[in-house]
Specification:
- One of its GO terms (cellular component) is nucleus.
- With 332 residues, this protein is of the alpha+beta class.
- It has one domain: 2-Layer Sandwich (60s Ribosomal Protein L30, Chain: A), CATH 3.30.1330.
- The protein is built from 9 helices and 21 strands.
- The strands form 5 sheets. An 8-stranded mixed β-sheet has the order 3-2-12-11-9-10-7-17, sandwiched between helices. The protein has a 5-stranded mixed β-sheet with strand order 5-16-15-8-6, with no helix packed on it. Strands 18-19-20-21 form a 4-stranded antiparallel β-sheet, with no helix packed on it.
- The chain is globular, with a radius of gyration of 19 Å.
Amino acid sequence: MKCVILCLCVLLCGITRVSMVVVLNGVLADECPTSVRALLAAHPGYRDAAAQLLAAAARVVPPPGLLYVGQRELAAVVPHDKNVNIIGSDDATSCIIVVIRHSGSGAVALAHLDGSGTAEAAAAMVSRVQQLAVGYPEGRLELQLVGGFTDPHRYSDELFANIMLSFHRLSVEIDLTLACCCELNTALGGGSAAPLVTGVGVDIRAGDLFPATFPDKGPELPLRGARTITSGPHSGQVLDIYDNTVGLLRIGPFNYEPLRGVDLWLEQSDDFILQHLSTTPAVEPPHFVHNIRVTLKFIQQHPFPAVTVFPDNRSHYYRRDEQSGCWVPMRF
């Protein structure tokens, strides 16, 4: 999906001094690496951790037991959640997938970040995991970053810096255990750069993170994707899509502004849409244009979702069907 990268409010040049709370290689550092190159210069061991992930076989994850997290979404789960076996996300080209895990409780939060709402998402993820880890005195918070590559516009580099600064500025210690991003996640075959891993899953019981793709990405994808190509009060937010207390997938409520020229967009060729609605058109997956067209059609049909999709301002809830293992609508 199109990634909107927020401008950083500080000059990012290798290493920036801030109040450190991220632990690097087991040591509470006093400097914040805001690029993968600076991170590797100080801690080359992160190259080996990334290489282990890249060497792992990618898994195609079916829908049963899956909690899929889309762009500008986050979710948090615990190992004893009977509704979720794997939490994951994919299609991250210039985006970065962020995982926070508490080693004692096994609580996991995952987000798919594109530059919008980064600081708020980082704080929310840590808060969710801390809440779910209550009662487990032992354990540490672990941070894993996967995705992004050395794209022509350096979107991923800016996003990596923004994510690192967002976590460094929190008031808790977080151990960075994996940073398979940017240059560590870039293939240079054929003369053009491309991301090596664009999706990951987390086995919430084992705690393992692995490369993954997800053919089924859950319900109401056009609605969920509409926020990323429109403007409005909720478009830049990273929304929590899972209610831990009752084990329900939660969508909305949110609103967006009508997309000017949506009819004209739908008349354009696939190549035109690819070139103009992606920050990285050369490396998008084959289904990118189809998904964009479906999303544009949804926006065309629902220019005011607060009126037609969420008329009562209530979330759409989905429960896990015991027989199929898939998400089905809750009937109230």
